[in-house]
Every structure is written in structure tokens, then in C-alpha cells.
Amino acid sequence: MKAILLAGGKGTRLRPLTIHTPKPIVPIFGRPFLHYQIDLLRQLPEVDEVILSLNYQPRRIEEIFGHGDGLGVKLSYVVEPAPLGTAGAVRYAGQALEETVVVFNGDVMTQVDLAAVVRLHRERNAKATIVLTPVDNPTAYGLVETDADSNVRRFLEKPKPEEITCNTINAGIYVLEPDTFDRIPKETAWSIERSYFPSLVERGETFVAYVYDGYWIDIGTPEKYAQVHRDIMARRFVAPPFASAPPDCRLVSPAARLEDGVTIEGPCFVDEGVYIKPGAHVAAYSVLGRQCIIEEDARVEGSIIWANGRIGRDALVRDSILGRHCHVGRNAVLGGGIVLGDKSVVTDYSRL
Q1: Tell me, what DSSP letter sits at residue 246?
Q2: 184 alpha carbon, distance to own chain's centre
Q3: What is the pLDDT of residues 35-87, one digit of tens each?
Q4: Cis peptide before 241, with omega less than 30 degrees from 0?
Q5: What CA–CA distance (Å, rounded) separates 41 from 49?
Q6: For 297, how many CA atoms within 13 A lie in the half-sphere containing its CB?
Q7: Is 84 helix (H, G, I), strand (E, B) or coil?
Q8: What is the rounded CA–CA span in Å between residue 196 and residue 183?
């Protein structure tokens, strides 16, 4: 069995963080995001190859992951000549496949039981199986309607309140049979939700849904990206590096340097090479990437600071996300919701 990870998007909703960093390698506790999807796919021993469908900065991704050495699965790469949409990318990446394929959208984190999804697909002899997840506010999403036997009946694109018949949305995980790919035009931008899936319904082919009501999140916005970190630290999502950590754990690398008088509250994450100077305070749910420097009496509260950041003396960074090599000056204050791209500079005494 093969798997296709649709990782070709530009990550526009995560900008400015993704201007120089493709979304698949956006760090989560210093670990490229794509690792978490590969971890999930390794639940299926029969998956012997993961095909990464890329378009945006593909070389950067390949440099990090290579051919999958040490990951327990072979990786290969397909680079789209132009953005082909979700269905177009599947056909382009899977045009030579003859066996069942598992497909992942490139921004999903979940703990779904993939073996159970594949088992349902095979028991029903389905042409396609889609994972759905329930949401609290159905009006904010496109919904997927099923019947009592889990057959997919239709897609409702952000319906009006009176049109709502269900609360399940596309979770971005599919099991597909390649003999259905011929209905996707070659090298043409084509939507899996708007075109490919409706074709299955129209032709009366077996198209079933697996409803998963556990942890699921789309990390594609700064708010959701920050939430994933909080969820992992709080053990709402069990994943490295906090998978076996006790509650409120302070994960501090042995290669970090903390001076006397430093205050660190858990849960938090401090990566290798971090230097925290006297009087600095790192509050709960903070993440400090490699080689960050936190100057005297600075405060970092619930923020994510990527590698090589520097927070000046008496500065405050609260509920913000800073890209690589950012410098926050002395006595500067960053309030909640600030997102800075790589190499941003906030001068002394500034207020954001």
C-alpha cells in the first residue's frame, strides 16, 4: 500500500511564518510538522512508501527528509509542474499506482485509527472512503452528509442554518482506489471535494465515511498552530516530545543554559542551546527554539519563539509567535496575537 501526502500548498494562512519555511517543515517543538503525519502512517505496516506531493519550495523539504532513512518508511517525491488542486495532485502523484492508496491533506494532525479506516474501506469494497469529524459550529464549514449505512450522499458548502442536516466535515484523510483517478483531468487543477467526490456519488459508486470524534486539528492558521502546541503540552493530543511526560512538565534540554534566578513554569519546552539570563521568566505554554537568548528580566508568556530568537532585557512577549532570528529589543512589549516573520526586529521600547 502507498500513501500520498498533499504537501504542495504555500501555507498562505500561516504567513509570514511560511514565507521562507514550507508548511510541511514548520517546527512543532523543533520537529518538522510532517514527522507527525508520518508517525501516524506508520500505524499501517503495509504502507511501504509515502509519496510527498510538493510544489512550494520542494528542495527544502527533500533536504530535511531525504529518502526516509530512520523514519521506518520509504519516502519519494513528486513535484507538481503547477498547483493542481487536491484531486489534480492525487492523480499526478498516483498516476502509476495500481494498489489502494491512503491520502492525507498536508495540514492535518489527528490520532485517528488508520487501520480501522482501511478495514472499513475493504469490508465495504469501497471505491473511496473519507474520514469525517464532527464540529460544534456547522455553519462555519462545508459539511458532508451520509445515510444510516455510512454512504456519502452529498457535500454542503457552508450551508445556511436551515440547510444543515449534519455536523460532520471532511477531515482531510482518504482511502482511494486508483482505478477512479481516470475521471480527474491530467495536469489540470481539480478539486477533490467539488469535483472528484461528487463524481463518485453521481455514478452510484461505493463511497463511505468513517466518522472520527477524537482529536483533529488543521494547523493552517497561527491560532491553530499555537493551539497544537498547547494541546500537546496539556496531553490533549498525545505526541512527542510530551507523549510520556508528566503533567506540567518543564522539558528543558540538557544543552540549554539557565542562569541563577531564572523562573520557568510548566508545561513548557526549552530546546538545546537556549541561554536564559538571570531574572528572566518563562511562563507556562512557552516554547523556545534552538539557540534562543532570553536577556535579563525578560518575560516570555505562552509564546512560541523559533530558533535563534533574542528577547531583550525587560521585554515582554505574550501569546505571540516569532519566526527564526527575530530580535525583540529592550523593554519592548508584544501583546497577544502578534506573529512575526523571520528576521523581524522590534526596536527598544516598542509596543505591539
Answers
A1: P
A2: 26
A3: 888 888 888 888 888 998 888 787 888 888 878 777 778 888 888 888 888 88
A4: yes
A5: 10
A6: 6
A7: coil
A8: 7
Spatial neighbors of 137 by CB under 8 A, at least 6 apart, are none
φ, ψ for residue 269, nearest 5 deg: -135, 125
The answer to whether the CB of 90 falls within 8 A of the CB of 102 is no
Contact (Cβ atoms closer than 8 angstroms) between residue 8 and residue 22: no
CA-derived radius of gyration, the chain: 22
**Residue 88: C-alpha distances to residues 175, 187, 191 (Å):** 16, 6, 7
User: Residue 334 phi/psi, 5° resolution?
Assistant: -110, 115
* pLDDT averaged over every residue in the chain: 90
Q: Which pLDDT value is given to residue 73?
A: 83
> What are 98-138's pLDDT values in tens digits?
889 999 888 888 989 999 999 999 999 999 999 999 988 77
- β-sheet bridge partners, residue 316: 299, 333
Q: How many CB atoms lie within 10 A of CB 293?
A: 19
Residues 6+ apart with CB under 8 A from 215: 109, 110, 111, 231, 236, 237
- Give the residues across from 308 on adjacent strands: none
Rounded to whole angstroms, how far apart are CA atoms 133 and 347?
44
d(CA 32, CA 29) in angstroms, rounded, equals 8
Give CA–CA dist 280/256, Å, rounded: 14
Q: Which of 94, 96, 107 is nearest to 3 (CA)?
A: 94
Rounded Cα–Cα distance for residues 184 and 89 (Å): 10
Prediction pTM value = 0.89
What separation in angstroms does the CA of 198 have from each of 21, 87, 140, 154, 193? Answer: 34, 12, 21, 7, 7
CA 232 to chain centre: 13
Q: Are strands 310-311 and 327-328 parallel, antiparallel or unpaired?
A: parallel
Residue given cell 530568537 in the structure block: 309
| CA–CA dist 107, 86 (Å, integer) | 13
